Amino acid sequence: MSVSYIILEIIWRITEIFFILSLFLLGFLFIVKKILDIKKKFIQRKQLQYMYHYLDKNIDFSNDVELISYSQVIGMRLLSTTEHAKREKIKVHIKELQLFEKLYKLYENTYMYRTKLYIFSSLVLFSDTQGRVLFHSVINNMKKRKEMPEFIVLALFGLALSTEKKEHLVELYEILEQIDEEEYPTQKFSEFFFIQAFISLEEGEIIHFLKEFRPKKLTFVSYGLVYALQPLPANLKIYHALLQLHDIYKDDSSLLVAIIRTQYTWKIKDDRLILKYYQHHHDLIRIVCAKIGLDIIDRSNFHLLSHYMCDENSYVRKNFLIALSEHNISQTTIMDWIKNTYPSCMEDPLLKRSLLLYKKGVS
Amino acid sequence: MFSIVFIVFEQIQYLYLLYLVITNVTTSMMIWVTLKQMLWYYFYEVDTLLYTLYRTRVYTPISILAPAYNEQETIVSSVYSLLKLDFREYEIIIINDGSTDKTLQYVIEHFHLHSVAVTDELPLEHAEITAVYRSHEYKNLIVINKKNGGKADALNAAINLSSYPLICCVDADTILERDAILYGLGKFIRDRRVIAVGGAIGITNGSVIKNHQLVEKKVPNNLIEGFQILEYLRGFFAGRVGWQKYNGLILISGAFGIFKKDIVMKVQGYRHTIGEDFDLLIRMRKYCYDNKIGHQVNFVPEILCWTQCPGDYNSLLKQRTRWHRGLLETLYHHKKMIFNPKYGIVGLLTMPYYLFIEALGPLITFMGVISIVVLYVFGLANPYSIILFFLLEFIWGIMLNIFALYLDIFTKHSYRGYLSYFKLLFLSFLEPFIYKPLLKAELFLATFNFMNATWGEIKRKAL
Asked: b or e along B239-251 (b: 16 or more beta carbons within 10 Å of the residue's beta carbon)?
């Protein structure tokens, strides 16, 4: 038997197998699609019904799909409601219906991975102490088995939403630190969960946490934590706790930048940080100071920042020029500042370039 | 003498059949991987978390760069569509790459632009920028007017002027989905190793556009356009999603791609070449491998961007010739990466795949078909080979088309109405007989053009 004949035979067999598999797969997909479509339509119809009666006390579920549909509706309501009283009302209703318990039972009795995940995505929305235990166990199990991270993300979301005291925040931080080493999430990823956690955490608990927050090493998670404070209303006490944190990690430029940006978001007028670091050797710190310095320091100190007109880093110069133009500061004023504060800068060719750019409008 | 010739032909014929089996099996496996990925994506990612993410302030600002050359017909509409994106903080940089029509004039008039200074700190090289414009009305719109230098050159100029850590490169004639940036950004947030994200591209030909938005997605009646829709579907389902799963993706369409600016700057931006988008991603990945930077390239299996495809054969063949030359040129430029274990899956799998299946495919097909015809004419063809050729080249092709189509119906339902899908189904049967052979013949010729051009001079075309 020649080699060519064997090759031909192999190709023939592969082709045969493919066609049989293809036909089988097409039929299988067709059936699955039909079933899913029917289920999807049913869920949509049910969700539409529940949308307007989600606080109905006599609500009853005749099957699992109804329970899941309702959970999604009320869960999303809870998530999108920012008014405290309304949120509490929804929470009470969820408790009265024993929704968590019912869903948990369903979750335990489901073996399809995807269905389980779907139920879990509802469970995380109305978690309590019982939920926290479940989320912890899910995170631990998943990490051991190194499975798809979707469950972990949802469990983290559940943990964040159910944060009620300082200890919960510590737990969340520690888990995120572990994940940071294994899964490489960004700082924004941690920030997202901390934002959720801060929603229902009281001011005192946050301050308490920050005062005790002394990790061996600052990471993306630590910076994410500071950035997550920004959506909160301006808070001087928290700001002072951040300054204390900075005193301990003085050399960490990312933390410093995060604190200055938080100060800017909260519009806290305080010259301390900017005046101490505006000539820092780290480019990023100077860029941030140039960009937002004029917004947070006293007007009487504006002249000190005019050094940025001759800064060696073009982004520092550009950001400062934009800030100057936003504050409507005239070219004469800028020249006066430089003449009086940094006379040596007057001869710097970078100054001429900056002034020309300022005159024409910064691009 | 003749018997040796016939033996050679016979061997070529087997090589060709083997090539067909490898191509088809790989494509089928990719479709299978995609099916799993897509199901996962559609039943999970598009709900609670994305919604919550959107409501929070967690995002990274992004610069959208759109090079334009003689785009007076579409430019205003494209800018409007970019201005309507559902995203908190982004800037749009339009680059008029020395257009000879009224592209710049139309943009200036419609958006009331005024001239601003050109910064002199431009780390990436490009043709001279003659003016930069901004708008009082649309604060996030910047328009650069520069001398013609090609798409890569235009994008480099825009990267120099961009302010944000992520850049999104799009074609000026594309319409982005309102939440395109949000989808792309999600990938960057989940994994800090992600250096680039691409998305599926849809075709607007035949669809209805109102107020700079795509209101009705329909399949056109034009055969060539219809074939291309099918080809795009198959390409995304049977390629990108699968490669992404194994972190082997090396191609993100030039019509829509988001990149980490710091890595783009490290590799000196775009290289002046025909396949600039293909080349950029390979160089970014090479840089990461060389410097031992863990990295990922991701793909969103969602149509994030809609673009016009060529409506006649001449334009189509010109476009494909350019793509094929770009592919060959880029592979040649990075030849040291092929089969090099230092470059992981990219060096050992993706690049060899692109070389043997994509780049040399037309050549192998041409030789294979010739050998089958010659053997048949002289009555030496094995009937099995003929049947296999027919099954592998045509019937398997039809099956793959149907699968891709079915996947689309199953998950995304990109086009509206039964009629659209009936049209595509009909075209699925015609495609292997009409469209594919024509394209392969053209690409076969392009392979030799590339060889001539490498040792001679490649004529660069404007955008």
From this structure: bbbbbbeebbbbb
Q: Do A80 and B47 touch (CB under 8 A)?
A: no
Q: Which residues of chain B have pLDDT under 70?
A: 1, 38-57, 120, 412, 449-463
Which residue of A lies nearest to B54 if distances are taken between CA atoms?
A192
A125 and A71 co-located in one domain: yes
DSSP letters, A267-308, are T----HHHHHHTT-SSHHHHHHHHHHHHHHS-GGGHHHHGGG
Tens digits of residue pLDDT in A65-84? 888 888 888 888 887 777 77
pLDDT in tens, B32-72: 887 777 666 665 544 556 556 656 667 889 999 999 999 88
- Residue A34, Cβ density class (10 Å: 0-12 exposed, 13-18 middle, ≥19 buried): exposed
Handedness of CA A287, A288, A293, A294 (dihedral sign): positive
What residues of A are in contact with residue B51 (Cβ under 8 Å)? 76, 79
What's the domain range around A137?
42-55+66-162
- Distance separating alpha carbons of residues A86 and A89, to the nearest angstrom: 5
Residue B21 CA to residue B18 CA, distance in Å, equals 5
Q: Right CATH number for B61-164 from 2.60.40.10, 3.90.550.10, 3.40.50.300, 3.10.290.10?
A: 3.90.550.10
| Residues in A touching B189 (Cβ below 8 Å) | 185-186, 188-189, 192
Same domain, A129 and A113: yes
The residue type at B79: V
* Residue at token pair 């097909």: B365
Token reading at A128: 């309590």
Number of domains in chain A: 2
What is the C-alpha to C-alpha distance for residues A93 and A91, in angstroms, rounded to an integer? 5
* Residue B328 to residue A76: CA distance in whole angstroms: 51
Q: Which of A233, A250, A268 is where one domain is finished?
A: A268
Label residues A298-323 b or e (16+ Cβ within 10 Å = b).
eeeebbbbbbbbbbeebbbbbbbbeb
Statement to judge: residues A158 and A72 lie in one domain: yes
Q: Give the closest of B120, B191, B294 to A185, CB-based.
A: B191
Per residue in A99-153, pLDDT (tens digit) is: 888 888 998 898 887 788 888 888 888 776 678 888 888 888 876 665 556 788 8
| Chain A residues close to B191, C-beta within 8 Å | 183-186
pTM, 2 dp: 0.86
B151 CB-near residues (< 8 Å, 6+ apart): B67, B69, B97, B254, B270, B276, B463
